[in-house]
Amino acid sequence: MLQNLAKLILRICGWTAVGGDLDVPKAVIIAAPHTSNWDGFWALVYKVAVGLDVHFFAKHSLFWFPLGTILRALGGIDLDRRHSGSAVSQAIEMFRTEESFYFGLAPEGTRKETPGWKTGFYRIAQGANVPVYLGFLDFRTKRVGIGPRFDLTGAPEVDLEFCRKFYADKEGRRPRQTSPITFPKRRRSR
């Protein structure tokens, strides 16, 4: 019933669901561009509509009753950002302990424009030795879904170029807030 409701919401609002058939039992699914609070809503509606069991981190402050109960039912995992350094190892451990596990996240990490993507998705996929699927929300065409799968090469710039090509024609709700697909250079400590 919930799946039919999600399909109806997509249809009434003019969205087209794309993809969703994953050919491996474990994967990281990234979702970009992430420029609005609406991204999370449409991603969850899509997830329910196509019947994907995708887990995701959500900030600790969202897990109040009854929203926390709903988020957990939808695959949400409580993340205390004060200890976010452990998020990568926590996700890798979940991959290690589950027979089938899909983990979704927005590589920008925020809705605002940033100097580039965070490396968390990459480190999780490498550490868990799983492929990455390219999820997207294209507000220009009103298409939401999961695109191609790719296995990391270990050369971040090569892998990010694959992502840049895929996302080149995808437009977020607020296009000016789209972050460049690059990993920011780390500052050297003195």
Brief rundown of the structure:
The protein has helices at 2-12, 38-50, 67-73, 87-97, 120-128, 156-167, and strands at residues 16-18, 26-32, 54-59, 76-79, 101-105, 132-138, 143-150. The chain is an alpha/beta fold and 190 residues long.
SS content category: alpha/beta
The biggest sheet amounts to: 7 strands, mixed
State the separation between the terminal residues, measured CA to CA. 58 Å
- Outline the low-pLDDT stretches: none
**Average pLDDT reading:** 93
How many DSSP E strands? 7
Radius of gyration: 16 Å
Element string (H = helix, E = strand): HEEHEHEHEHEEH
Number of helices: 6
For the biggest β-sheet, the strand order reads 1-7-6-2-5-3-4
Choose one word for the global shape: globular
Helix fraction?
Answer: 25-40%
Number of domains: 1
- Beta strand %: 15-25%
